[in-house]
Design goal:
7-stranded antiparallel β-sheet, globular, 9-stranded antiparallel β-sheet, mainly beta, Jelly Rolls, single chain
């Protein structure tokens, strides 16, 4: 028995790298995109500023240069008090970026974003994915993957998927989870879009898994095997996060990097 244990431990040692993770030979992912935000300006072949809209997540988005800047190799998105209501009637202004119409990311795929979220009453930063082909797969039929949403100064982040199935057919079925974060430091928020499931994770720890259920294709239960575009945005206020306390502003969302991987062998 003792010899068997030693053999097993030796086998595990061969499979594990120096960091204690499965070695590259066992890694199914291939990196296809990395954004480090270290050039001090947006790569306009990949990103553009988010625009103003009527929904809660979009009704304070602004092109004001104070809402987007770069610092120490990070993209910094800000939420600020609007000091010129004649130029813009929104009481608060926020920054965001989106790859819609510019850069499509793969599915199946792994997405990881390293970010630090500063606290403020009414702050609602988010990182999320939508189907790139909006003409043929409009929301919600192309699905929505919320990789990270954080409210106010919480020590947790929400990770959720939305589809016509979860919105209209079976809203009571589990389609999201929460995970602990370090509220004062950077955390890595991620999602694996697999042929058979979606796995959400924070700092490498799984928060929840959403399975693909055969036979529910007409209900759009799992529409996620489509190219995606990414949104990263700061928002202030809304029906979910609540009212804003202007004394807490400005508030920042720092993005260190974005990494995207595809499966080395994909079968959609």
């Amino acid at each position: 028995m003792r010899h068997l244990v030693l053999i097993c431990l030796a086998t595990v040692g061969l499979l594990l790298g120096s960091s204690g993770t499965i070695s590259a030979r066992k890694n199914p992912w291939k990196k296809v995109f990395q954004e480090n935000f270290n050039k001090g300006k947006l790569d306009t072949s990949v990103w553009k500023r988010t625009s103003r809209g009527g929904s809660d997540w979009q009704n304070t988005q602004s092109s004001d240069p104070r809402c987007l800047t770069f610092r120490k190799g990070c993209l910094v998105l800000r939420g600020i008090v609007n000091d010129d209501l004649k130029a813009d009637t929104a009481h608060y202004l926020t920054g965001g970026i989106v790859s819609e119409g510019l850069k499509a990311f793969p599915a199946p795929g792994r997405y990881e974003i390293k970010a630090r979220l500063h606290a403020a009453q009414g702050a609602w930063p988010a990182i999320w994915l939508l189907a790139y082909d909006t003409k043929n797969h409009p929301w919600p039929y192309g699905g929505e993957i919320d990789i990270m949403e954080r409210l106010n100064g919480d020590s947790i982040a929400y990770q959720t998927v939305h589809t016509p199935y979860t919105l209209y057919k079976k809203p009571e079925e589990k389609h999201g989870g929460v995970g602990d974060i370090d509220p004062d430091d950077f955390n890595v928020y991620g999602v694996d879009i697999m042929p058979d499931s979606i796995r959400m994770h924070i700092n490498g720890k799984t928060t929840f898994t959403y399975p693909r259920v055969p036979g529910l294709e007409k209900d759009h239960q799992y529409p996620f095997l489509l190219d995606q575009y990414m949104l990263i945005d700061m928002q202030l206020g809304g029906s979910w996060v609540g009212k804003v306390d202007p004394k807490d502003l400005p508030v920042e969302m720092e993005i260190d990097w974005v990494k995207v991987y595809e499966l080395k062998e994909t079968k959609k």
